[in-house]
Design a protein that fits this description.
mainly alpha
């Protein structure tokens, strides 16, 4: 029997925010609900947490309030990615309310990123890549891991 994964608060609120965003156009459709529940089940999320998230389909919550509870930058970035897919799954375009929330959350996310720290990390990766190439030109996997770790930290 497979073990279930319990989401931390930031992850849990990412999914709750996504459900709240499904409400912004006034109608939660089966496609949106299926999109969210399928992903939670595929990730073997704790059934109690799925049940709580499912309850959010019946009761609309403020997307903005839930978004503020997402503390991990990766969770915010993932929310934006998932929201875009979900919004476009309806009719290949955002409605006005969906676009409003998407743009607002994207701006908040981008403004929360410490650009000085990001630039410092990019320079560090550039230096490591340069040194690695000098020592061993075929260290592509090292380069990819370094860059991937950087992206994971901020996005």
């Amino acid at each position: 029997m497979s073990q279930h994964v319990r989401l931390n608060d930031s992850q849990f609120n990412k999914w709750r925010t996504l459900v709240a965003l499904a409400h912004v156009d006034g109608l939660v459709c089966d496609v949106e609900k299926g999109f969210i529940i399928d992903r939670l089940q595929n990730r073997r999320v704790d059934p109690e947490q799925i049940k709580l998230i499912e309850q959010d389909f019946d009761q609309a919550h403020s997307p903005g309030e839930l978004f503020e509870k997402i503390t991990d930058p990766r969770d915010r970035a993932t929310l934006l990615y998932l929201a875009r897919i979900m919004f476009l799954s309806n009719n290949d375009k955002f409605c006005d309310y969906e676009k409003l929330y998407y743009d607002k959350f994207k701006a908040k996310h981008m403004s929360s990123i410490d650009m000085a720290q990001l630039i410092e990390q990019v320079k560090k990766v550039e230096t490591e890549v340069s040194l690695a190439e000098d020592l061993e030109p075929k260290r592509g996997s090292f380069i990819f891991r370094s860059f991937s770790n950087l992206l994971d930290k901020f996005f």
